[in-house]
Design a protein that fits this description.
heterodimer; A: mainly alpha; B: about 40 residues; mainly alpha
Chain lengths: ~500, ~40
């Protein structure tokens, strides 16, 4: 008997928690900043309506229809398409290996924040040395002998332990319970941080930089591709998560409105993060004379800029430390709710095909996944290989899988049939526009994202030195080859769970 | 802050936050109607 979500609220919190992740915090704000500020919102909204929402409805509806994860769902379209399902669920496992290393840094900073609060170490005003100590340094991705961060290694164990504990308890007993507490808590804490950030002196400088529209950029195709890429990657589509979550929906549950809520919740978090990050950066620009990009456009903002900002919000070290702890706790929750969904994507797919207990399967994957994460705990792994693997797997492969998925489901299963099923018990119905979007518009734009990313990646190879190019080939293409190889092995194994015949 | 930045901030935040609130209200009202119908039965 297949498990079901115990409540609609639990399902939405889990799906929103899966979509909301660490990327929201630094990806959206800087995408908007670099692509026309407020003008970026126009293509962003168009992408939400024409890509994220239609695809979310499609994944929920198809998951519920097939009552299975990606592997079973794709095998229903044709035996040979099962391989697509395996590649799709292999992606989140690879992503989890390096994502866990980033969550691990949040865990380390939580501990250090408590140390700051108790007066053991005063670091929030100058987080650089701590960051350097935690992540170490290496000369290049090939500098594998540079060493390993024992801090990240230990924290990664804690992260995988959390993943293991939650996912082995199943959908209603683990993921739903955890998400029902953590997702609303994350939202409330982030709103409090945002309100506090807007009150800072200099916040308006940051908000002006983020929202001042430069409409001259709106006609540039690159801004549209960036908006579609942002929306697509941010909503955790095409990695089997939403298909798996949809497969646990009750057969008479709403699909359409739940998809709208999930996408809007994720976008709301994007905007909260945008206001929070740029208000804080505006404060630092005014008080320290730095530039908006002085802390980089990625994780550096969270791990360097925020501790500095927090240290100036109060003169009391206890308050500083507790604020720091809460902020990194938010990062930890955002990361963990996404990582459990990634693990569940693979678990659901495997349980559909193989006769194995959930507990045993989750234990095996967690051990293997920890082994992968340990590679990213190395100095070269964290500082170089992580970005390379993310560029190949997190960008190219996911967008490519999205394109294949939308084409296969739309043209083989059929959008009109799926629309009727999605509409059957939904709060409100979608019209034929959804069919047109999935059949023509979304594939075209996802195709543009794939081609642009691939073009940038290949041309980028030529502008690099030998070490950079070799690193890209070894770790980037190497990971892709291993992933596809593993997918072929799983594809060739016999179905032992009888799920395909259900 | 310039007027254009304020307008874009209101449009941006208003659209997604408003969208989230409206869809949640729809879900809650449908749920309420269903519960009421079940009670009448």
């Amino acid at each position: 008997m297949r498990e079901n979500w115990q409540s609609r609220k639990g399902f939405i919190f889990a799906a929103a928690g899966a979509a909301i992740g660490l990327g929201n915090l630094w990806r959206f704000p800087f995408q908007a900043y670099k692509n026309g500020g407020g003008a970026f919102l126009l293509p962003y909204f168009v992408a939400l309506i024409t890509c994220a929402i239609p695809l979310m409805i499609m994944e929920y509806a198809y998951g519920r229809k097939t009552r299975g994860g990606s592997v079973k769902a794709f095998s229903k379209l044709g035996k040979r398409f099962e391989i697509i399902g395996w590649v799709q669920v292999m992606v989140p496992i690879v992503v989890m290996t390096y994502y866990s290393a980033i969550i691990a840094v949040s865990v380390i900073f939580m501990v250090y924040s408590l140390g700051h609060a108790f007066g053991i170490i005063n670091w929030l005003s100058d987080p650089g040395p701590i960051m350097g100590m935690v992540t170490g340094s290496a000369e290049s991705a090939l500098d594998l002998g540079a060493g390993i961060s024992i801090y990240i290694l230990i924290a990664v164990i804690a992260v995988w332990l959390c993943n293991w504990l939650i996912v082995k308890k199943g959908i209603s007993g683990g993921i739903e319970k955890m998400s029902s507490i953590f997702t609303p808590l994350l939202m409330v804490l982030m709103i409090i941080f945002m309100i506090n950030a807007v009150r800072l002196s200099g916040a308006t400088i940051g908000l002006e930089a983020l929202f001042k529209p430069d409409f001259s950029k709106i006609l540039s195709p690159s801004i549209w591709v960036s908006a579609y890429a942002q929306v697509f990657f941010s909503t955790t589509l095409a990695v089997g998560v939403m298909i798996a979550y949809g497969s646990y929906l009750h057969e008479k549950s709403d699909i359409v409105n739940s998809a709208f809520i999930t996408v809007f919740a994720n976008s709301s978090f994007d905007l909260i993060a945008g206001v929070l990050v740029f208000s804080t950066l505006g404060f630092l620009v005014e008080s320290m004379g730095v530039e908006f990009t002085s802390f980089g456009t990625g994780a550096g903002v969270a791990f360097i800029a925020f501790p500095i900002a927090i240290s100036t919000m109060s003169t009391n070290v206890v308050v500083q430390g507790l604020l720091g702890f809460l902020f990194f706790f938010c990062l930890f929750i955002a990361g963990l709710s996404s990582s459990i969904s990634m693990l569940e994507s693979f678990v659901t797919a495997s349980l559909d095909k193989f006769k194995i207990s959930r507990s045993k399967l989750v234990t095996i994957i967690s051990i293997v996944g920890f082994g992968g994460s340990a590679c990213f705990a190395s100095y070269a792994g964290f500082n170089y290989i992580l970005d390379i693997v993310d560029a190949y797997v997190g960008n190219i492969i996911i967008a490519g899988l999205g394109l294949v998925e939308v084409v296969l489901i739309s043209y083989i299963y059929g959008t009109s049939k799926l629309r009727k099923e999605a509409n059957a018990f939904s709060d409100f119905k979608i019209g034929i526009w959804w069919d047109y979007l999935l059949r023509y518009f979304t594939p075209l734009l996802l195709g543009a994202v794939v081609i642009t990313n691939l073009f940038n990646l290949i041309t980028g190879l030529f502008s690099q030195d030998t070490v950079g190019a070799v690193s890209n080939v070894v770790f980037g293409w190497g990971t892709v080859v291993i992933m596809i190889g593993a997918s072929i092995i799983f594809y060739k194994k016999k179905w032992t769970a009888n799920a395909q015949q259900e | 802050m310039s007027t254009s930045a304020i307008v874009m901030m209101i449009i941006g935040c208003g659209t997604v936050w408003g969208g989230a609130v409206i869809t949640i209200i729809i879900a809650l009202s449908v749920e309420k109607k269903k519960n009421l119908a079940n009670e009448i039965k």
